[in-house]
Specification:
mainly alpha; disordered N terminus
Length: about 140
């Protein structure tokens, strides 16, 4: 008996050995690519989820940044208004202080005038007494 050659060997299906090897290689390649694709899909799913979460968070951060800028601008405008109100109030308080100072000076002047008038009236009363006293003495001396 002679050993059969490779080309004459048949597998169970009756196909030649070379065709079977190609088919097995093709099936192995297909199985490998399927496994690789499945592995890639299972690895990509969490990455895609993370990328989606990052994108959504970035959009929320952009919206918050815009809101913060708008609020900051409003606060800056209000701050300028409050600063103006404070300056006006300061000026009015200064005027009030000036008016108070003026009133105190006027009051001191009036007190000085009042004191002077009291002194003058006192001297005038003394003169009258002196004059009246002298006149009374003259009347009595004439009688």
């Amino acid at each position: 008996m002679t050993a059969p050659s490779e080309s004459s060997t048949c597998n169970r299906d009756g196909a030649s050995g070379a065709g079977t090897t190609e088919q097995q290689t093709s099936e192995a390649r297909h199985a490998f690519l399927t496994a690789l694709s499945s592995t890639a899909q299972s690895s990509l799913a969490p990455l895609q989820s993370r990328a989606s979460d990052i994108h959504n968070a970035s959009q929320r951060i952009d919206a918050q940044q815009q809101s913060l800028e708008t609020t900051t601008n409003k606060v800056a405008k209000e701050e300028k208004q409050y600063e103006k109100v404070a300056e006006d109030a300061g000026a009015k308080l200064k005027e009030l202080g000036d008016v108070q100072n003026w009133a105190e000076m006027l009051e001191r002047d009036l007190l000085v005038l009042e004191d002077m008038m009291d002194t003058v009236e006192g001297e005038e009363d003394m003169r009258r007494e002196c004059v009246n006293g002298d006149a009374a003495k003259r009347k009595t001396s004439w009688m």
